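Researcher: I'm preparing a figure for a lab meeting and need a structural model of a single chain. I don't have an experimental structure, so a prediction will have to do for now. The sequence is pasted below. Please return the structure as tokens so I can convert it later.
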Amino acid sequence: MFYKLLLKGYDSKVLKLIIDMYAKTKSFVKWNGKLSDCFADELGVAQGGILSPYLFNGFLSDLGESLNKKYGVVLDAETILTHLFWADDLILMSDSAGGLQAQIDNLYTYCSKWQMIINNMKTKCLIFNGKKSEVVPEFYVGDVKIEVATQYTYLGVPFSTIEQSKVTKDYILNNCRRALYKIRSYCVPLGQVPPKLGLQLFDSLIMPLMDYASELWANKTIVDGLETFQLGYLKRILGVRPSTPTLAVYGELGRQPILYRLEMNRLKPFAPMAEFGGAPHPSQGGAMAEVGS
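Model: Understood. Here is the structure written out token by token.
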């Protein structure tokens, strides 16, 4: 890592200081309240270290250069998307099976050159083509075959090659129900929760789960499911019957349908893009591989 950073032009004096710091760093394991003997940690960056994110980013800053754009997903005449990279989670993308395998080979070569190991157990491939195919392409990291899956969760967002809306709706609603059960357990001593407190709890603990990445997944099927969940909660904190008219509930609490909020979330990213002539639209098919670190 330090050799690569030196090649990139990092100040040699600063690097010597960091190298000295890492040479003196020791680690230990805590298990059942007991600590192991200290040992030298010679792999990766220091967990929780202030400099660790900067060293990691500097080390992998040239990863994109190793991925050939001619194998990416074409968004428009000037934009080709080859990968998504967040922390140590990487997605490779291509609009063809051969292109994706070429990207995987490029990544494998890059990792071999810089002595990194791809976690094959966490590496999956998803194929989006809008139809089922009897012939499923095979993909390999080196000599190891990658599992072709139908569903994968990336950064808290579920992706599925079948029934995407249902998978996403179930995933979000399950998270919301868990949060609701937690709210109920906390509020048992209070009895009937005052509406004002109930709304504050909803906005603090449940609404963020509905908001998260809604720009990607919001559609009528999912929004209708979230709206039913919200209405059930609102009627419960008001202590009214399930058959109470929706408009009466909204009016009493001063709330709006979830749809309005999610539509605003969806439009926010496009506001700055409008200044540059609009946002590109992705193609309808392709494949992606989630690469484990």
